[in-house]
Design brief:
This protein is an alpha/beta fold. It is about 25% helix and about 30% strand. A seven-stranded mixed sheet has the order 2-5-8-13-16-18-19, with no helix packed on it. Strands 3-6-9-14-17 form a five-stranded parallel sheet.
């Protein structure tokens, strides 16, 4: 298997792989271009979004935005993210329809081995994240690898999501816990 296949399979992989490094550099350059555009340069924003995410969908993302690869991020209809969204997409991040992210949201599919020798060797892994329809992610939320968030969920501002969130609930805190059913 290639390092990219290992990465997308959720196995340990070598992030210094030449192809992965090239893909990350391309994504970072596109993010930088996007972040430095004039606020009203909508045609150029759409062009960069299409190339970065390899999609015909048109997510609305306020600058600044950063990701690792871009092509591992899948959007439903009517996606909105406020300023400073960061997505470490070494595995897939899938958003349903009508998802809203507050400012400073961080979504991490990436992880590192707990064993120090494995970590020092440069190995990494990534686990997919799936976010359902009609989800509101409050400002400053951090979502860790291998998480599924159900439809209609609300994640309170400043929360750390460490485990799956069922549909139709409000979660908040560190770690995020159910505080209300909807």
């Amino acid at each position: 298997m290639t390092q990219k296949e290992l990465m997308l399979n959720g196995d340990y992989y070598d992030a210094s792989d030449k192809q992965l490094k090239s893909d990350r550099i391309k994504a970072k350059k596109l993010c930088k271009l996007y972040n430095n555009l004039d606020i009203d340069d909508i045609p150029k924003k759409k062009e960069i979004i299409k190339e970065l995410f390899q999609t015909e969908k048109e997510p609305h993302i306020e600058a600044n935005f950063w990701c690792d690869y871009g092509y591992n991020i899948k959007f439903g209809k009517n996606f909105y993210a406020n300023h400073n969204l960061t997505i470490l997409d070494v595995n897939t991040v899938e958003f349903g329809d009508n998802v809203m992210c507050g400012p400073n949201v961080q979504i991490y599919t990436a992880g590192h081995p707990l064993d120090a020798q494995e970590r020092i060797s440069g190995l990494e892994f990534g686990k997919a994240i799936k976010i359902g329809n009609n989800v509101w992610i409050g400002g400053g939320v951090i979502i860790l690898p291998n998480i599924t968030i159900g439809d209609n969920a609300v994640i309170g501002a400043g929360s750390l999501v460490t485990k799956d969130v069922p549909s139709n609930v409000v979660v908040a805190g560190n770690p995020a816990k159910i505080i209300k059913e909807l």
